[in-house]
Request: fold
Amino acid sequence: MKLLRHSVLLLAVVASVALSAAEDLTKLTLAEASAMIRSGKVTSVQLTEACLARIDTYNDKLDAFITVMKAQALAQARALDAEQKSGKFRGPLHGVPIALKDNVDTANARTTGGSALFADRVPATDATIVTRLVAAGAVIIGKTNLQEFAMGGGETSFYGPARNPWNLAHNTGGSSAGSGAAISAFLAYGAIGTDTGGSIRMPASFSGIVGIKPTYGLVPIRGIIPLRVSMDHAGPMTRTVEDAAIMLNVLAGYDKLDITSVDHPAEDYVAALKQPVSGFKLGLPYGYFDHLDPEVKAAFEAAIVVLNKITAGSIEMSLPPAVRPLAGGAETIAWHEAYVKSSANLYMLPERRRLEALAKDGGGTASDYVKGMWENQLLRRTVDDAFTTAGVDLVVVPTHRILPPLLDDLIKKAYDVKQTDPAVTSNCSPFNIFGLPSISIPCGFSKDGLPIGLMISGPHFSDGKVLALAAAYEKATEWHKRQPPLTPETPKPAVIKGT
Reply:
């Protein structure tokens, strides 16, 4: 009997050690995981199994993934390990588990857009960026949750709203809510987000991670369910700036069949991190600091003190008014119109109301739409002049003006038919209108432990400079090292049902 008890105890200890080892693997940065694979200290299968085990433990609490691609991911990992043994190494993403927002088409797995409308939709081909990730050796571990068809802040999805790992009652930001939660909670080493009005940077801010919206057209969006093509971007969400640069090296590049793609000379964004930032002059644009939550204001002011020490300092300056092009809803309804006519009942109620309203008036007149696009194209051609005129290299602002709100509050607003236009709470949208590169990085936490984000933006194709300053700030601070207080015992609070 004693021997049996001893054996049971020993097995429990072994299991605990194995679990701890797997936990340690998931806490690696993407760069660290890549280095360990290349050196042979760990295999892709081990990394993938560690992430899958953590997903199994935490996804029910977070609702971060809509689809977990366990069998495909392990098959990929085994094949990549075999390549490694034969002497073939594809690059820094070789064997590293990466998650995709579930509006990014995958030929071997469903792409739902967070909607019942596409609950069983399996695309015929991969999105361009998926082809690039797979060619670079990334293991696609699953598809992450999002606001239905990326139409908002992450509070309405057919699969339930993703939860904030720092407090499960709070919003993770959207629409790339699941990607933010997955990276913050160590369920993958990197993820893809999409960003039409802040949908990479807002969840990065609320989740305490890094998210970059590259220059418009730098990363192809072909094969991604569109929201508003003239504003849509795709980019990496990671735990460090270096990890984001590693992913951007793979994602960036011209796609002739993508009407938004720009033929820009290839750059090495990892190498760009090494450039000195001491000569960078920073701009503080008027109008981006109104109505800040006091804790956001304090965190941002502390961040500016750090930035002023590592750069040539900061000055106040002006950016052009960021006015959304007229009749922009025409782009959204152009894609959804047939589905709204045939299957409106399959949309979530808030999105259905919006789309039916757009379908009723066509999203605005054709004349207004054309004039709006002309104005936006001129704005994008001239916005870089504001940096030159002010004598600044980059601008810095709070990513969000508020702290992560409660999911219940957002759900109530989403289903309120009498809701008025909300107050401006994000600084992200103007940089979609401008088409400029923008990154959000952690710069502090509220007294209740909720993350606060700092956004750095620059002229067109200054992505390398943006990353360099973000990396320098990250190195000078410790915010990115904090981890959510999430355990298997953390209770998952109920949220209200929209009506």
In short: The chain has 17 helices and eleven strands.
